[in-house]
Amino acid sequence: MRRSDREITDLDEILEVMKKCDVCRIAMQGEEYPYVIPLNFGMTADGGQVILYFHGAETGMKYELLAKNNKVCFEMDCGHMLITDMEKGNCTMCYESVIGYGVVEEVPDEQKMAALDILMEHYPVPAGFHYNEAVVPRTRVLKLTVESMTGKRREKK
Hints:
The chain is 18% helix and 46% strand. The chain is of the alpha+beta class. Strands 1, 2, 3, 4, 5, 6, 7 and 8 form an 8-stranded antiparallel beta sheet that branches. A hairpin with a 2-residue loop joins strand 4 and strand 5.
């Protein structure tokens, strides 16, 4: 990392940043160009092993690409705030971000509901909300097992 003064090295701090984010972007190896897709996500962290969960329709480009190569890069960011210095004519952006690498696998049917529950826990839903379980058979659920990740933060001074 070029700016080590902005690096977040503590796993608990990285997880706190991840909890603040509401979108995770997954980059896959495309045919001619890389392919990036923004996804809603949920996550678990157990003994340092972080797993991200995603859901989607039954078909699509991401499944085709993942079938060929399931190694991905992911990115999420939050806490954006533009900081301007009128005197110097400079500006910068405050942010927190996490970038990492891992392997994506499809969640088996018998584990889909548990994975979807984890995904739903990440978002503030109204009390008593329950998703329609009739759509679960038509929903594909993926899990990304994180192999490595780094966090970065630019705070307002």
